[in-house]
Specification:
alpha/beta, four-stranded parallel sheet, globular, 11% strand
Length: 443
């Protein structure tokens, strides 16, 4: 990133060796997809939140378009893609991930099927199918439909729905409704994958993928648990680099090895008393909001103040709870397991603040010994920005710690002010210091 004519480092300084190697996972995703497409194998553009186990059970090579948008932002190569989408009538208030993907598709088509210039990792190969879901946010309902402007590709969208926090997750009528709805969605999704790969679902193979994913999930969660140590052995900046294996490759033994290596490294650092920085003075929670992929160096700026982000709500993997589900049908198992895990989080919240998202923050502040929290208001991401004030206000009924709101975007850096943001951080860190000394925080 250029500031006043000078190039400023926008990546976070990595503390762990495992995080330094995590970049290879993203490389593998794009290169493998290019090779598979040339060989005539099925390749799908996918959204985060899909049931990866089913995709893997059909041996579909997945390219996660949100990840590619984050990658282009980190490489400072997102602007031409954003501008291409906006030139086609898409508002700059639409999700930055969406605009990056749309802009890429437009330039890909205009280039006669060639990867747009100056895009990282050899680009995203053209897909043989588009796989979408409703998890998390509303732009997903139309994003891949909009790609029909640029490519004629089979498209499937399935809905993911859970009860809201004010519904009784243990009510049999509520449980049956949502579980049955999920089963129907997953069965339709499975039928689509079978049709467009020419394969029949191998249930035994799917069970293998499910069990592997749960093992990976558990190891990932155990790595989070190790970060409770003082000093913290791994910061949020590192964990944001390490998400690729668990989010996109969680059904593979290589991902299990990755998180085992990470766990071993964190355990070793704890035993030796090695922290993220030499003098850890402040422990912070990354409360809400996607990371600013366009300037991950922001985390290093906090560390220059002696502050370490010890845990984050984004991409956090809660404990893979043991649930008693009696079924030999893997599709039904996935639907029931997913619901039961949500119900467990809901029950925990009922014993506290009633809201699972705020209860998670309360648990983080207590368990990770945090003295401050940061909320990232991402301009084009309503899903993780709406409600931040509500979360802070509800949180303060239980604990009052300094909270910083910063504004930018996860991809689009065109409106980002480095100087203004750093000034706010400087002021915030003074508040955190006061809080640690006196136990009170002035907003």
């Amino acid at each position: 990133m250029a500031v006043n004519g000078k190039v400023v480092k926008t990546t976070a300084v990595k503390s762990t060796e495992t995080a330094k190697k995590a970049n290879e996972w993203a490389k593998m995703m794009y290169l493998k997809a290019i090779e598979s497409r040339k060989a005539g194998n099925p390749v799908a553009w996918c959204m985060v939140g899909l049931q990866t186990e089913i995709i893997e059970a059909f041996d579909i090579d997945a390219v996660y378009t949100e990840n590619y948008a984050a990658l282009t932002a980190a490489k400072q190569q997102a602007d031409p893609l954003l501008e291409a989408a906006e030139a086609d009538g898409f508002s700059n208030l639409i999700c930055g991930y969406v605009r990056t993907g749309i802009g890429y598709s437009r330039l890909f088509k205009e280039g006669g099927g060639k990867v747009p210039e100056n895009t990282p990792r050899g680009g995203m190969t053209d897909p043989s199918m588009l796989l979408a879901c409703s998890a998390i946010c509303d732009p997903r309902f139309k994003w891949y439909q909009a790609l029909a402007r640029y490519q004629d590709t089979p498209y499937y969208f399935y809905d993911i729905a859970y009860p809201s926090p004010d519904q009784d997750h243990d009510d049999p009528m509520v449980r049956d409704y949502y579980i049955n709805y999920s089963i129907s969605q997953l069965r339709d999704f499975t039928a689509f994958c079978a049709k467009h790969t020419g394969k029949k679902l191998d249930e035994a193979y799917l069970w293998e993928k499910i069990k592997m994913a749960e093992q990976v999930h558990r190891l990932w969660w155990e790595c989070h648990e190790l970060r409770k140590a003082v000093p913290c052995p791994m910061p949020s900046g590192d964990m944001f680099s390490c998400i690729v294996a668990g989010m996109y490759y969680r059904c593979r033994p290589e991902a299990l090895d990755f998180y085992q290596n990470l766990k071993d490294e964190l355990t070793d650092r704890i035993e030796k008393g090695i922290g993220v920085i030499e003098d850890e003075r402040y422990r912070l929670v990354w409360g809400r909001g996607l990371p600013p992929w366009h300037n991950m160096g922001l985390f290093t700026y906090f560390e220059d103040h002696g502050a370490v982000f010890v845990i984050e709500t984004m991409y956090y993997r809660d404990q893979p709870y043991e649930v008693d589900i009696k079924t030999e049908d893997p599709i039904e198992y996935l639907a029931r397991r997913n619901y039961e895990w949500e119900a467990i989080r809901w029950r925990k919240a009922q014993q506290g603040c009633k809201d699972p998202s705020v209860q998670l923050l309360l648990d983080f502040i207590k368990d990770y010994k945090a003295a401050g929290m940061v909320m990232h208001g991402t301009k084009s991401c309503r899903a993780f920005t709406i409600g931040q004030i509500y979360f802070k206000n509800l949180l303060e009924h239980y604990v009052k710690i300094p909270t910083l709101f910063i504004e930018s975007d996860m991809v689009d850096a065109r409106d980002y002010s480095k100087a203004h943001t750093e000034q706010k951080i400087d002021e915030f860190m003074e508040m955190v210091g006061q809080y640690q000394q006196t136990g009170t925080a002035d907003d």
